[in-house]
């Protein structure tokens, strides 16, 4: 974070019992212009949307999502598609959200956002990570109601200590570091394979008839194995060890 981002973050930071004023007037405008402010989807968002539309996660992403590689993170990112000319969210049907009860968490929590604060000094223990909340000036609705973050999340069924969010953010941050490094070493073809694998394990490799949490746990385990293999590869490469089977180094092509 640069100084400006830190300043903005501190201005927006809100405690879980701190009051904020907001009343949604149901104008529906937040479902337009979504091409300017994209809606990022997590694996859990895609799973819930897929289940409510009776589709697989793959079909859901194909029909309603757009996938790209993040400019800074170098991670596969999935966002909701929009429809021209007004940037209407693809899931807005006849002025209603087609997945109202399973809308993406970003939509459900608005105008509250959240982030995982990771202390790099501390160990791998997930207890060392803290979810922090942000109040994003909504520039819509009115201030007829007063809420706290705890109440706001409770009414949308979102836990303050959302274990999925913590594990998801942590997995993304670890993957991002290795994928950024991988690009310095591997060819475009190998990177494409790595991105396809991570896209599948992050977002698509789920059976909607089964429990989400256990499938997410198994996928994260495989992703962390990949992180480990890549880290070992670089360690060995740094020591001049040629025994590794991953030889698709950019320098060799
Ligand atoms: S997912 Fe639903 S609530 Fe969110 S922008 Fe799309 S239509 Fe609106
Ligand atoms: S959240 Fe804001 S933009 Fe969206 S429907 Fe409510 S008042 Fe309108």
Task: Report what the structure shows.
This is YkgJ family cysteine cluster protein. It comes from Blautia hominis. There is one protein chain. This protein has two domains: 3-161, no CATH class; 165-243, no CATH class. The protein is α+β, with helices and mostly antiparallel strands. The longest helix has 27 residues, at 212-238. Helix content is 43%, strand content 17%. β3 (65-69) and β4 (76-80) form a beta hairpin. It is globular, with a radius of gyration of 20 Å. The strands form five sheets. Strands 1-10-9 form a three-stranded antiparallel beta sheet. Strands 2-11 form a two-stranded antiparallel sheet. The protein has a two-stranded antiparallel ribbon with strand order 3-4. α2 crosses α3 (57-64).
Q: pLDDT under 50 segments (min length 5)?
A: 240-253
Percent in strands: 15-25%
Q: What's the N-to-C terminus distance?
A: 35 Å
Mean of residue pLDDT? Answer: 89
The gyration radius over C-alpha positions equals 20 Å
Strand order of the largest sheet: 1-10-9
Question: Which small compounds were modeled alongside the protein?
Answer: iron/sulfur cluster
Number of domains: 2
InterPro entries: Puta_zinc/iron-chelating_dom
Protein name: YkgJ family cysteine cluster protein
Outline the secondary-structure elements:
Elements: H1 3-12, E1 13-14, E2 19-23, H2 43-53, H3 57-64, E3 65-69, E4 76-80, E5 82-83, E6 88-89, E7 92-93, E8 96-97, H4 105-109, E9 112-117, E10 130-135, E11 142-148, H5 149-155, H6 163-185, H7 188-204, H8 212-238
This protein binds iron/sulfur cluster (2 copies).
